[in-house]
Amino acid sequence: MLAPLIARFFDRNATPVRVGLLAAVSAGYLVVLARPDELAGPVGWSLLLGAIAAAWFSPRFPLASALAQTGLLAVGEFLAADNMIPLKVLASFALFELAMRRSGWALPLGATALSAVSVLVGLTHATRTPVEVAFQASLVVGGPLLLGIYIRAANARAREAEARAAEQERLRRSEARVVRVAERTAIARELHDLVAHHVASIVLRVGVARHLLDGSDEPMRQVLDDVHDTGSSALADLRRLVAVLRDPEAHDTAGGDLVDPSELPVAVAAVVDRARQVGLHVDATVDPALAGLDTVRGLAVLRLVQEGLTNVAKHAGSAAHVWLTAELDGGHVRLEIADDGDGVPSDTGSAEHTGHGLTGMRERVALLGGTLRAGPEGTGWRLKVHLPVTEPDRTPSLP
């Protein structure tokens, strides 16, 4: 906990704060704590300013800064300056920064230079014994040296831990991608082997049935033609979806190839026409401005219309009256599908609890940041969707 705080304090970005604090402490000592006969003169203040200036360059040139401050300490002793304690403190800080930032030959050089000056300074005082001189040198040199080495080692361990954590996260994401690929491959295989196979079989048999009809049964031929076209379209969509699942990198969005946004109004109109062929009475209002939507929202609108009309035919009956509105309303796409419930339902189950259609619509709308409300209204059912409109390059991709 202490090492990161110290490292942050001695970061290059904190140089003004650090140097300002050293200058304030040094000046404060000389002004407040020093005895009157120890007040620094012009030479002492010049040396102090030089040491502070050298401290400014310590993050970029730690060895040069340490040697410069050691030299200033030696000059101060030679000139008998009155501010030796601040100069010693600044020299010790410089050695600490050097130990924290550098290893190899630079560190012994800086430590040896400051040790030599400290010993020489101590020996100039006749009242001090060799033991006192050695003890003073150990305080000036040994303490900052050991603390700097410790902080450097702690920072190195912290960086190694961060690197290991980043590598583990990368491995975890890689494994998750592998799992997702396996899931997509399994889904693609099931879609191809089961769903697509059966749909292809249905399309083939409907095609055979069309050829077996004689020319007198035109209504039945029209119905079979519609079933054949719908099945062929569904089979093409399934094949493209299988291709997306197997190779998602080859497509911008899941299903982005299934509808061109510029053709969205035409695609919605085609869905409405198929619903009318089933027997639904659909009053549709489709805004041509929908052609300006991005691919993801265009696909969402198309799928919502398909699922909504399918639910009406399933739960309200194929003879129900339906009102459909799809338009741009300010910064949102507004989609409403309502029915009168007067048809003969092919499935008496509740649309809210039967199957996964409404659940899938809610998930799709929520993914795009929109809202969906669905429920009974009068004798029928109403679906209301609001989707926000954003720039294409800011839209999320479908899962």
Automatic annotation (TrEMBL):
Domain Histidine kinase residues, every copy: 194-391
Catalytic activity: ATP + protein L-histidine = ADP + protein N-phospho-L-histidine
EC number: 2.7.13.3
Classification via CDD domains: HATPase_UhpB-NarQ-NarX-like
Keywords tagged on the record: 4Fe-4S, ATP-binding, Cytoplasm, Iron, Iron-sulfur, Kinase, Membrane, Metal-binding, Nucleotide-binding, Phosphoprotein, Transferase, Transmembrane, Transmembrane helix, Two-component regulatory system
Subcellular location: Cytoplasm
Cofactor: [4Fe-4S] cluster
Ranges annotated as spanning the membrane: 15-32, 39-58, 78-98, 105-127, 133-151
InterPro entries assigned: HATPase_C_sf, HATPase_dom, His_kinase_dom, Sensor_HK_TwoCompSys, Sig_transdc_His_kin-like_C, Sig_transdc_His_kin_sub3_dim/P
Cited Pfam families: HATPase_c, HisKA_3
GO molecular function: 4 iron, 4 sulfur cluster binding; ATP binding; metal ion binding; phosphorelay sensor kinase activity; protein dimerization activity
Enzyme class: transferase
Assigned GO CC terms: cytoplasm; membrane
Function field: Member of the two-component regulatory system NreB/NreC involved in the control of dissimilatory nitrate/nitrite reduction in response to oxygen. NreB functions as a direct oxygen sensor histidine kinase which is autophosphorylated, in the absence of oxygen, probably at the conserved histidine residue, and transfers its phosphate group probably to a conserved aspartate residue of NreC. NreB/NreC activates the expression of the nitrate (narGHJI) and nitrite (nir) reductase operons, as well as the putative nitrate transporter gene narT.
Name recorded for this polypeptide: Oxygen sensor histidine kinase NreB
